[in-house]
């Protein structure tokens, strides 16, 4: 082990603090670095990183403004764990396992192989290390995964006997992760009872929550979401806008009231709203076109969509608009190849479904809620559903969401025959990895704001060179496409210095990057799927770097050398004095000059052009299209439940729907709720939003125990009578909803509650009435589990389905810690024979976990959600409840 005082000798660090790296942690780590021979630099006065002086960046995320430039300069970005690992070894640890880049999907994995064939073992370990992981010869405390076919191997027995936290998985898990290029949940692959080998393929898989889609389901949201720091009360001061100038494009078409709100938020946070594209820092627009968009992109401004701006406001933290596809402006004409394509979705739920619908539309295709024979593609999270069966029968392309995401990210339609897009792991819903695909900046630049030295300002050349170099320094292909590893400190190769400290030109030496040799594909016999073998050594030194890596280094040096004159010109122009009011060269002056010279050349080369008749003037004039009336700004957001306006009332129907086709009462109700009523109300500034979104009012004819009613009551929505909707439609204007608060004395007596009291409690509970309480539900319960899951999770409960093959999911606790006795755990059930068989096993599981089992009728959950009060009565026990009902 080396001398710890010189571990970081010759290295200069800087930190990227944030929510994942606090200022306290930065201070402690900085002291460790200095004691170990390193140097730590703070950010510059303008808040940017001192890239010209540093050799390493310590960050637990790649989401910071200078990340693209660090890839261009091959400056390594590593997590804080790299510091402790280096100090523990007495020398600098490898960089690859500690990159924060999410595309290195195994960066937290330490794997050891057990009873699998030797060739498969080499393949798995090689691929894991290539994608950020490490291998371990023996099982130890650092081991996270054991790859095995059974528990008989001594490594598995050792892990079990010592109670290690590592997971024992089938090699199938690695195979599916390699094929997808995403790290999926290990649960279905865990020994001794892996679900993928036991469960029937047609058995339902729980739809996971979408962790990467917060604030990114739409490029242009309808409303400004609430702050992440405060569910109720005033929004906290936004520090993210400090000294930032924001420009809102005219193509956003936002109304004066919303613009005023955004203006106030930015100004209160120390920022400024501007209309000058030259001086703004952030440019927010809807489409990837127009002179302002192109100019902002060339000037290196941060360009994002309205959704991105709202996300910034919500999270109060900067994030790159390129990390989430719909945080960047959309192409006005979509992606080539998607026009007239009809695409539908299956097996995705919640935000994931909304996100895919908007992404498909942004790509230029037609999204259909139902599937017919004229559909061209089915995007599905599993290959098991009625739509999937129909797609096979009708020969419709069936792919996962990675196809539409990567087509949109790369600005071109990807082949549906790629194995990644047709991979559907047996017991996995791919909704768990949706939203992780970033935009390809180089492709966007090439297609939407191209430029060259002959027609661009020096700063646009600099921006383009940075993007190109970052692309060159990333992997060209493979599961971790786009990942840049970085370099170690090697001053011998830092041959070029420029006067601009913001962009010092460096050449680099690459360490730890394996040679890209092609090897024959090897097979893992158990999963029977092809694997790709990584060749080369993980810890190659400069003397053993392959010729391909040296070639890449030489190319980088050459490209950086070409940039130097452009940077010098940029610096010279930046320092020009603004004599005679002329100011800096560039911007509008440069564009005017270019356009003037272009017009002179065109007129000179075509002298007869002016005499030619104008085709548009001489042709027959077409009638002008009637402009669509603009909709009023949304003032109120409502959810309707149990609304029956025209059912069995022919006169109202004829008065409001002249010429419409006749429908049955059931069809009429459904049609009005989803279409006609919504359009009429929207014209009044009232938006009927889907269940699950933020609402102001819950509209119902009476107190009803529907999913919509209980979910939105749990959010604290004001409940108003459906007479309000009636009067709005009759008067053709929005009337005050405060005069229509729902009064239902009969239902209040029936359910033993006071609606106003329930609403007040819901606002205080803030969706956390059942926070931390585990609620199980039998898989075959009447009305299905989805409704109860929605209600339970709306109140913060931990909801799980309990079936015949469910294992133990309650973690045992120490009885001595339960001062007030064991906590209750609930199982929603009926008295059906198939469900009563589960009671005994559930009760045993609960008691082993030192919890009190309560097998209850679903009415307990409904009444708790309705009253917004956690209470208990033994009448809800199934043995009492259904006996009282005469079952």
Automatic annotation (TrEMBL):
It comes from the Eukaryota. Residues 514-557, 574-630 are annotated as: Disordered. InterPro entries: BRCT_dom, BRCT_dom_sf, CellCycle_DNARepair_Reg. GO terms for cellular component: Cul8-RING ubiquitin ligase complex; nucleus. GO terms for biological process: DNA double-strand break attachment to nuclear envelope; double-strand break repair. CDD domains: BRCT_BRC1_like_rpt2, BRCT_BRC1_like_rpt3, BRCT_BRC1_like_rpt4, BRCT_BRC1_like_rpt6. Pfam families: BRCT_2, PTCB-BRCT, RTT107_BRCT_5. PANTHER family: REGULATOR OF TY1 TRANSPOSITION PROTEIN 107. This is BRCT domain-containing protein. Residues 3-100, 101-191, 338-410, 677-742, 765-878 form the BRCT domain. It comes from Microdochium trichocladiopsis. Residues 541-550 have a biased composition (Polar residues). Residues 589-600 have a biased composition (Basic and acidic residues).
